[in-house]
């Protein structure tokens, strides 16, 4: 008896299973600099991205070592979002300041952080599903992979995507301001060496409990809006990555020795 098969799949169908995970962590990484506790941004944003890489790898059955996680999760160019820390201090003072800061470079950088996490998470998920061979991914190969990801996302622009993330970050940012500082302060209690992951879990719990379920609404709306650019922007991003990855791992031709016929 023949098994019925569905029609040809689209170029982004394999990303559907992990989309909510990636979008949730992307928003959380941007939110990290918008809470009323200083210096939380770099600490939590980096941890969120590391946790995302580990989770996607686990789901896709790809083993990673610590060096690979670091290479994939580190901000491109080792960026330090210092303005975000300043913004967190200001937001802690009064909700009215949030309206002014939201239009500043601080807010733009937080949106960039969220989009960057979305890009890295999406392309890493694509790599795991379509390109990975063997069991594990070490630091050296992960560095090549991150290079291909950066090439694919360089100058990648989508006004629809950026507007969607801006709306998401505004929504969760306003809700985050309403959460008492003492709640966010739980993230800084003394932790064991493995505390980075515990902080991410705690941050997720706080984000999920934001007033008006802001986090859930933001992720749901983001998912819907990204579907609108699925066949254009996201598919283009995957295609650019495929080209960059092929160029990165393909052997370079060896020049003949001088004087050879």
Principal-axis shape equals: globular
Largest sheet strand order: 1-2
* Helical proportion, percent range: 55-70%
Give the number of helices. 12
Q: In this structure, how is the largest beta sheet organized?
A: 2 strands, parallel
Strand content: under 5%
Average pLDDT level: 80
In angstroms, what separates the terminal alpha carbons? 62 Å
Can you tell me the number of structural domains? 1
Helix vs. strand class = mainly alpha
The low-confidence runs, each spanning 5 or more residues with pLDDT under 50, are: 1-7, 77-94
- The number of E-state strands comes to 2
In N-to-C order, the SSE pattern is: HHEHHHHEHHHHHH
Radius of gyration: 20 Å
Structure description:
The radius of gyration is 20 Å and the shape is globular. The protein is mostly helical. The chain is 66% helix and 2% strand. The longest helix has 26 residues, at 105-130. The chain has one domain (18-247). It has a two-stranded parallel ribbon with strand order 1-2.
Keywords:
about 260 residues; mainly alpha; two-stranded parallel ribbon; 12 helices
SSE blueprint and pairings:
Elements: H1 19-31, H2 40-59, E1 63-64, H3 66-73, H4 82-93, H5 95-101, H6 105-130, E2 136-137, H7 139-153, H8 159-177, H9 181-185, H10 195-208, H11 214-227, H12 230-249
Parallel strand pairs: 1-2
Helix pairs in contact: 1-2, 1-6, 1-11, 2-3, 2-6, 2-10, 3-7, 4-5, 4-6, 6-7, 6-8, 7-12, 8-11
């Amino acid at each position: 008896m023949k098994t019925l098969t569905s029609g040809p799949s689209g170029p982004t169908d394999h990303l559907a299973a992990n989309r909510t995970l990636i979008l949730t962590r992307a928003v959380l990484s941007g939110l990290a600099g918008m809470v009323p506790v200083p210096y939380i941004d770099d600490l939590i944003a980096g941890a969120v991205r590391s946790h995302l890489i580990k989770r996607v790898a686990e789901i896709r059955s790809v083993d990673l070592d610590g060096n690979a996680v670091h290479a994939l999760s580190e901000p491109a160019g080792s960026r330090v979002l210092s303005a975000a820390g300043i913004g967190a201090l200001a937001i802690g003072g009064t909700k009215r300041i949030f309206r002014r800061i939201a239009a500043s470079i601080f807010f733009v950088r937080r949106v960039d952080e969220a989009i960057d996490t979305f890009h890295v998470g999406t392309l890493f998920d694509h790599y795991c599903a379509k390109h990975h061979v063997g069991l594990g991914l070490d630091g050296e190969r992960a560095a090549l992979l991150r290079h291909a990801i950066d090439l694919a996302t360089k100058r990648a622009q989508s006004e629809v995507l950026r507007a969607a993330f801006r709306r998401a970050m505004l929504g969760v940012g306003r809700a985050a301001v309403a959460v008492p500082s003492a709640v966010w302060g739980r993230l800084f209690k003394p932790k064991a060496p493995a505390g980075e992951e515990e902080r991410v879990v705690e941050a997720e719990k706080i984000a999920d409990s934001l007033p008006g379920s802001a986090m859930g609404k933001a992720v749901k709306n983001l998912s819907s809006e990204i579907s609108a650019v699925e066949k254009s922007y996201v598919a283009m991003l995957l295609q650019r990555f495929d080209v960059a990855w092929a160029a990165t791992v393909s052997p370079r031709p060896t020049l003949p020795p001088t004087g050879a016929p």
